[in-house]
Specification:
heterodimer, A: mainly beta, six-stranded mixed beta sheet, five-stranded antiparallel beta sheet, globular, B: mainly beta, seven-stranded mixed beta sheet, four-stranded antiparallel beta sheet, 11 strands
Chain lengths: 112, 112
């Protein structure tokens, strides 16, 4: 079955860039997503990328996709303490059920 | 406000009891997904409904059941509760492939 893997933890200093990585196994993935979860809250969709794209930039966020290696990354520029959260990547295919498979999440800690 | 409403926000109950969690999807969304999030298991997919019909099942225990009603709201029933069922239960909804999920803020269940 499909599998999505992420590293568990990342610590950066405020103002630095953060890069959160994700690998997936389903070659039929059409959409790849990044979600953010702050303590005690639900998951918030941050950004997404179609599988036919290599890169997408949205303000401080840059998503890079290497489809050959099935590797997805999320770069947060000028990381702030408010970016401290758990980040989940997810992959989905263009099916009627719109099923997404989530990674285990990466906890980002931003130190002042 | 994401548009996905979950009630109650918090629930404390004793072992052996039964509870019902409720979810109202975002207006226009036909699919509802239920997830369990615990500290040691991450985000676990439980079950999906699409326009009233069960579409997919994940790691849902036999003690748990769900349904989606004609008005598209959904209920997750948890019975014979055990201490290990303590977790955050999230509902998400989606309208079509590629749109991603919109998550509710979750119900925190504590079994004592």
């Amino acid at each position: 079955g499909e599998d999505v893997e992420q590293s568990l933890f990342l610590s950066v200093r405020e103002g630095d860039s953060s890069v959160i990585n994700c690998t997936y196994t389903d070659s039929s993935s059409t959409y790849l997503y990044w979600y953010k979860q702050e303590p005690g809250a639900g998951l918030q969709l941050l950004t997404y990328i179609f599988s036919n794209m290599d890169m997408k930039q949205d303000q401080r966020l840059t998503v890079l996709l290497n489809k050959k290696d099935k590797h997805l990354s999320l770069r947060i520029a000028d990381t702030q303490t408010g970016d401290s959260a758990i980040y989940f990547c997810a992959e989905g295919s263009n099916n009627a059920g719109n099923m997404l498979t989530f990674g285990g999440g990466t906890r980002l800690m931003v130190k002042p | 406000d994401s548009g996905v409403t979950q009630t109650p926000k918090h629930l404390i109950t004793a072992t052996g009891q039964r509870v019902t969690l409720r979810c109202s999807p975002r207006s226009g969304d036909l699919s509802v997904y239920w997830y369990q999030q615990s500290l040691d298991q991450g985000l676990q997919f439980l079950i999906q409904y699409y326009n009233g019909e069960e579409r997919a099942k994940g790691n849902i225990l036999e003690r748990f059941s769900a349904q989606q009603f004609p008005d598209l709201h959904s209920e997750l029933n948890l019975s014979s509760l055990e201490l290990g069922d303590s977790a955050l239960y999230f509902c998400a909804s989606s309208v079509r492939p590629g749109a991603g999920y919109t998550f509710g803020s979750g119900t925190r269940l504590t079994v004592v």
